[in-house]
Design a protein that fits this description.
Blueprint lengths: L6 E5 L23 E2 L18 E2 L10 E3 L28 E4 L8 E4 L17 E7 L2 E4 L1 H4 L6 E8 L8 E7 L3 E5 L5 E3 L1 H4 L7 E7 L8 E6 L12 E2 L4 E2 L13 E5 L5 E3 L13 E7 L8 E6 L5 E5 L5 E3 L1 H4 L15 E4 L8 E4 L8 E7 L2 E4 L1 H4 L9 E7 L8 E6 L20 E6 L2 E4 L14 E7 L8 E6 L5 E5 L7 E9 L11 E4 L6 E4 L2 E2 L10 E6 L3 E7 L5 E8 L2 E6 L7 E7 L1
Parallel strand pairs: 1-40, 34-41
Antiparallel strand pairs: 2-3, 4-33, 5-6, 6-7, 7-8, 9-10, 10-11, 11-12, 13-14, 14-17, 15-16, 17-18, 19-20, 19-37, 20-21, 21-22, 23-24, 24-25, 25-26, 27-28, 28-29, 29-30, 31-32, 32-33, 34-38, 35-36, 35-39, 39-40, 41-42
Length: 600
């Protein structure tokens, strides 16, 4: 077989004794079935906070995708504060995101929860803010905020993680209503606030952010979504002026702010290059962003979801310039040519045709949009046909495309929740707390499973941020959801996996630069139907998910992977075994490094 000059071939069987490089971890616990909950006559349980229960649910009543609430006894006691009040300060409607990351590199993924506060914002407040929890294994967590040295004095909107200085430890960027914070991971369990020194203490109202290497210099740059011009002093009155009952104003009442792009200078500082790189074609009230190769040219692009403005597709040329192609590509509007209230984003090859598609959550009475990739930079919006049920009545936020039941097809989850808690008082339709959405992917068409996905999905919630992450290292994706004014949901994946398949989990490590390998593409080349995963920056709603790639392959099969690295080089990993988690370190020589973490 001939391999191109830039392709490294990895024979895994000869490399099992390699250095682990942060991919260590204990063997996971065995899964247990979901436990039943009592429900009201309409079939939906009313408590907002998910709870574990005591009676096992019969296995024959479970669907293939199933989650168990693990929040009780986990040690996570975080409570979100949105700042909601009768004054209806606009940012309180949008809430906060969260992140999953292995900040101490012990092989167990930890959790960072963004928090809000009351208005006006008091930077000297003593009330609890953001919280970091260290994963101790076996679904037990310990608060590590104080020990880590992270104190965020603002109202946290979103959280993005990435190793911007290439030292092997993930750093944390927090977007805020107020100045954003960049925390440098010192590698000893603590962080240093380098916001001012780095030049990334952006003072505008920011939402989501994404790390990416847009100029291919091996350093992670940073794209930050701005929402709008707003201040508490100019918080407009919307609602019933006669009864003096306020509601949150429409996004059209605030002027959109242009987003910002920071270039990593390599010396710990960033330079604002927004005006010279083509990203500021227009403003859009940005709420979600994903950084990935979206047109198949091996150069990283940006997709931005905007609130009641057209969405952006910023195509990168790999040399530091972008061209906006949202309308030309078919990704700017819905299938009727209308702008929607774009919020959360998910990315994946849902139809397994070898190209990545984009999913966008939207507001009530707007269907969630699915932009199906037809290749050559052309998309078609097929949300109403591919996902015919479960989105129109609800306000969608965080989301993920993940193969929860390991059948090879990416399933879909969305957390929902209205912005206004006084709709009935104002005589308007809608519920503040809403059911989440869970869909099984049946060969490219999504079938609604809610509320059959477990006790959590029988309840109503008001969700915002959502991440997918393998928290117990058992080879499938678990889910964490942040709630307005409440405790988060910690959902263990107990799906009835396809008996013919087993998972293969891959973590990529760029070498020597872009250690997160953001922009990489991983493809299974040993099966008849394509499976691919992208390592991307940003995603969901203002949140950071696990960047490890999970593939479903046949039991005891030997799998070959083709990896397209962000710098254009390729690696062919040959002979990977199912039921094993691997770290693959980019190599530019014959001394390839593929490290199995553990058998599951």
């Amino acid at each position: 077989m001939f391999f191109p000059p830039r392709m490294t071939v990895l024979a895994v069987s000869a490399l099992l004794g390699g250095l682990m490089l942060g991919c260590t971890g204990d063997k996971p616990m065995q899964k247990n079935p979901e436990q039943a909950v009592s429900k009201s006559p309409d079939g939906i349980s009313r408590p907002q906070t998910p709870e574990n229960s005591s009676t096992p649910e019969p296995t024959d009543l479970r669907t293939s995708i199933h989650f168990t609430s693990m929040i009780q006894g986990s040690g996570i006691d975080f409570q979100h504060v949105s700042g909601n009040s009768p004054e209806k300060a606009f940012p309180a409607a949008n809430g906060s995101g969260l992140a999953s990351l292995d900040y101490d590199m012990d092989g167990q993924y930890d959790l960072y929860f963004g928090n809000g506060t009351t208005f006006p914002i008091d930077p000297l407040r003593s009330a609890a803010g953001d919280e970091l929890y260290r994963n101790r294994g076996d679904w037990k967590f310990r608060r590590a905020t104080a020990a880590s040295g992270m104190i965020n004095p603002s109202y946290t909107a979103g959280v993005e993680c990435g190793d911007f200085n290439n030292d092997g430890f993930p750093d944390i960027y927090v977007t805020s209503v107020g100045r954003n914070q960049l925390y440098l991971n010192l590698g000893d369990g603590t962080f240093e606030d380098v916001s001012v020194a780095s030049g990334t203490d952006d003072p505008q109202w920011a939402t989501s952010a994404a790390f990416l290497d847009f100029d291919h210099d091996g350093l992670l740059d940073l794209y930050v979504c701005h929402y709008a011009e707003w201040s508490l002093e100019h918080n407009a009155f919307c609602g019933d002026p006669v009864r003096k009952i306020r509601m949150y104003c429409s996004p059209t009442m605030v002027r959109p702010e242009p987003d910002v792009l920071f270039r990593n200078q390599g010396d710990g500082t960033f330079l604002n290059v927004s005006e010279t790189t083509g990203v500021r074609v227009r403003s859009g009230r940005g709420q979600g962003v994903i950084a990935a190769d979206l047109n198949g040219d091996q150069k990283i692009d940006l997709y931005v979801s905007n609130d009641i403005n057209q969405n952006f597709l910023l195509l990168g040329d790999g040399k530091g310039q972008f061209q906006e192609a949202g309308e030309l590509s078919g990704t700017a509007y819905d299938h009727l040519g209308k702008s929607q209230a774009g919020m959360g984003l998910a990315l994946g090859d849902f139809d397994r045709n070898g190209s990545v598609d984009v999913f966008v959550t939207n507001y009530a009475k707007e269907h969630n949009a699915l932009y199906e990739n037809l290749r050559n930079g052309v998309y078609v919006e097929t949300g109403t046909t591919r996902i015919p049920e479960g989105s129109l009545p609800y306000v969608g936020w965080g989301t993920s495309l993940s193969d929860f039941d390991l059948d090879g097809w990416l399933d879909l989850i969305v957390t929902n929740g209205h912005t206004d808690d006084n709709l009935a008082e104002l005589g308007k339709e809608g519920e503040y707390q809403q059911p989440p959405g869970l869909w099984k992917n049946d060969a490219g068409r999504f079938r609604l499973l809610t509320p059959q996905g477990g006790a959590y999905f029988k309840e109503l919630h008001n969700g915002r941020g959502l991440v997918s992450c393998d928290l117990d290292n058992d080879g499938d994706s678990d889910v964490v959801v942040g709630h307005q004014e409440g405790q988060p949901a910690l959902l263990r994946n107990d799906s009835l996996d396809d008996p013919k398949t087993q998972s293969l989990q891959i973590r990529l490590i760029g070498n020597p630069d872009n250690r997160d390998a953001i922009g990489a593409l991983i493809k299974v080349v040993s099966t008849h139907q394509p499976q691919l995963r992208m390592v991307f920056g940003g995603g969901s709603y203002a949140s950071t998910s696990d960047r490890r790639a999970v593939f479903a392959v046949e039991h005891d099969a030997v799998t070959n992977l083709l990896i397209d690295w962000p710098d254009g080089s390729q690696t062919l990993a040959v002979g990977l075994k199912t039921g094993v988690d691997y770290c693959i370190v980019q190599s530019h020589s014959s001394e390839a490094r593929v490290m199995p973490r553990s058998d599951r």
